[in-house]
Specification:
Blueprint (H helix, E strand, L loop, with lengths): L1 H14 L4 H15 L2 H13 L4 H5 L12 H14 L10 H10 L2 H16 L1 H6 L4 H6 L5 H10 L9
């Protein structure tokens, strides 16, 4: 499976690139939805390194109603959320989300967006098994020992069921 995933990444990466800011936004939202603390912190580091506004990074979960993001960015973030929650939803991606993302992006760009989202979920079963939980890290409250044990059992991304 890993060699196939790597080939897919090279194919998509070799044919189309996303705008750096858009890629960082998509990856950050996917990391937060995946619950991977390492991925969230890495995204914050890359955001700082790019000298981008932290107001936008903090607002990424509230993208739909935020004026900090363009219509194109909101379409990409809605797509990110739909792909991240795919395994929890019967019937696939919502048609309106797919139509909106296709209005702003070409099919190769949609494939690149999908790859950017899935990258944040790919290794999450391992981090989830170690008890990494980004939601608590973002909120800043540490879980109690009993909660930590429960998180180790259930942490990780629901998208992993697709593998």
């Amino acid at each position: 499976m890993l060699p196939s995933y790597a080939r897919m990444g090279r194919y998509i990466a070799g044919t189309v690139t996303l705008e750096p800011r858009l890629r960082l936004l998509v990856q950050q939202l996917a990391a937060e939805l995946a619950g991977c603390r390492w991925c969230v912190e890495r995204g914050r580091h890359l955001w700082r390194k790019a000298f981008l506004s932290f107001d936008e990074l903090r607002a990424v979960r509230r993208y739909a109603g935020s004026q900090l993001f363009s219509e194109k960015e909101r379409a990409a973030l809605a797509f990110t959320e739909a792909v991240s929650r795919y395994a929890n939803r019967a019937g696939g991606l919502p048609a309106e989300v797919l139509a909106d993302v296709r209005r702003h992006f070409s099919e190769p760009e949609v494939a690149a967006l999908t790859l950017a989202v899935s990258e944040q979920h790919f290794f999450n079963p391992a981090t989830g098994a170690l008890g990494a939980d980004a939601q608590r890290a973002i909120a800043g409250d540490a879980p109690a020992p009993a909660q930590r044990d429960a998180m180790r059992r259930v942490a990780g991304s629901p998208i992993r069921n697709l593998w």
